[in-house]
Amino acid sequence: MNKIFDVIIVGGGPIGLACGVEAQKHGLDYLILEKGALTNSIYNYPINMRFFSTSDRLEMAGIPFMSVENKPTRTEALEYYRRIFFHFKLNVNLYEGVEKLERSGDHFQITTSKGIYQTRKIVLATGFYDLPNLMNVPGEELPKVMHYYKEPWPFIGQKILVVGGANSAVDAALETWRKGAEVSMVLLGDEVDDNVKYWVRPDIMNRIKEGSIRAFTRSKVKEIKEKEVTISTPEGDVTIANDFVLAMTGYKPNFALLDQLGVELSLDEKRQPCYDQANQESNVSGVYLAGVVCGGLNTREFFIENSIVHAESIMEDIAKKLE
């Protein structure tokens, strides 16, 4: 392929779309590559999920985000970003995963599942929802272990173990319990996380207190078998009957793409990519970072609402450098 784009944006989530909008404003020849559906991460959220952010803080490009309540649902967000996509006629290739990134002379070459592209600049807006944090315990590979949760209906009348104490774990525990599952939770600390949505946290705390949902605190999963799970607790190992394990253990960025380009990561536990906060350019000239990928393993530092500004600073810098 002989054409060379000004910039290719890897990731078609909200931040990737915002980058596309800003690229258009600056007259840049751009392409967005998304390995799944439009805003694939939001699509994979639990069906009944409601955002912590208010709809006005998720807006971009001056397009109002209208929702029934001030905190929008997953469905409302999918509809809003669909409207952004069509309103700006964004140049997005869906279901085209990036496989290899490399420098080729004074530009970059991107190999995908469907072709090869050349570009002067790259923006990585890949998020972190694609790679789950594994528990690394025997039996984790069993089909009954799931790292993504969509809805409660498959778990009616089943014995469920939810691993984790953040928002996704709490939502899964409450929803499956309310549909008739027998629910237990494994928590690393003494209770669910402090950052659980404030209108949900009292609910889960009360369900645990009354015994409706059993919580193993300061505990870890030790082994998973077909019909049971062994949990390491402060009082010793406990084995409980089990049909499904919902491992809501969080997710991490795709460091492989960063490594291919030579983007440096911090040596501490955050593994945060090296970039200039003024323009989001990484230590590799021509490679920019946008959105939650900037936080490395600290996935709670960046959200849609505080990352949309990355798009403007990135495209402004690229436009200047390509003049």
TrEMBL record:
The keyword Oxidoreductase applies. Signal peptide: none annotated. Keywords: Flavoprotein, Oxidoreductase. SUPFAM superfamilies: FAD/NAD(P)-binding domain. GO terms for molecular function: oxidoreductase activity. Coiled coil: none annotated. PROSITE patterns: PROKAR_LIPOPROTEIN. It holds the Pfam family Pyr_redox_3. InterPro entries: Bdr, FAD/NAD-bd_sf, Ferredoxin-NADP_redctase_2. The keyword Oxidoreductase applies. NCBIfam families: Bthiol_YpdA (TIGR04018). PANTHER family: THIOREDOXIN REDUCTASE 1-RELATED-RELATED. This is Thioredoxin reductase (NADPH). It comes from Algoriphagus ornithinivorans.
